[in-house]
Amino acid sequence: MLLCGLQKTTLLDFPGHVACTIFTGGCNFRCPYCQNSELVVDPAAFPKVFEEEVMAFLRKRKGILEGVCVTGGEPTLQPDLARFLREIKELGYLVKLDTNGYQPEILQSLLEEGLLDYVAMDVKASREKYAMTVGVPHLDVSRLERSVSLLMGQDKIPYEFRTTAVKGLHDPEEFEEIGKWLAGARALFLQNYRESENVLDPTQNMGSFERTELENMAERARKYIARVELRGVE
Question: Is residue 41 over pLDDT 80?
């Protein structure tokens, strides 16, 4: 596992649980607004976090922490992800996976093995604008559709979809299309873009939306998804 960071405690990343967050390196998308850009393009620049250290930490924190969030980068690119999650589960922890959904076969395998207790999948844009939004010209949208269907077909595993709204990349009408795509989903969370020098492509004309604009986007998606909420928006 290419591990690039460990946040020892979080009350936000795993809904309803006290958890820690593990960051993996590398990603198959190039979203210009990505806040973890160094993890995406240059994970080797991070001091390596050794698995032995992580597992020792988890053993020590048993009874204090309830869950482990595995995020990135894109965790499903790690060839030994299943083995790593297996070891975490053996310690008695719940596991939450953050994913961009572009590896549906990996997601399916992890779900079938019972290694996931919560999944958060980023839905970056409507299907028509996906390739442009994630910076992958020859994107295969059907791979994302498979992951969406996998999650929406889950009876027991909680999941959520989430979209970061970026002025310059998204408009209110697009959330109508996202809503249609995810119609019947359990939950969609809208997050506002935060300006930062650390984004992947700071040269692009990107900005944040006003709360009223985000509420408009949420209302459009609520025509199709019962639970659409703003997250981290003042």
Answer: no
Task: Taking residues 162-170, report their average pLDDT.
Answer: 95
Q: Is a pLDDT exceeding 90 seen at residue 51?
A: yes
Q: Which residues pair with 20 in a beta bridge?
A: 68
CA 128 to chain centre: 20
pLDDT band at 36 (very low <50, low <70, confident <90, very high): confident
- How far, in Å, CA of 93 to CA of 154, rounded? 20
> What are the start-end ranges of the E strands in the chain?
3-10, 19-24, 67-71, 94-99, 118-122, 159-165, 188-192, 228-231
Cα 204 to the chain's mean position, in Å?
Answer: 22
Structural domains in the chain, CATH included, are 3-167 (3.20.20.70)
Question: Longest C-alpha distance within the chain, in Å?
Answer: 49
SS3 at position 181: helix
Please give the Cα distance from 3 to 43 (Å, whole number): 9
Average pLDDT over all residues of the chain: 94
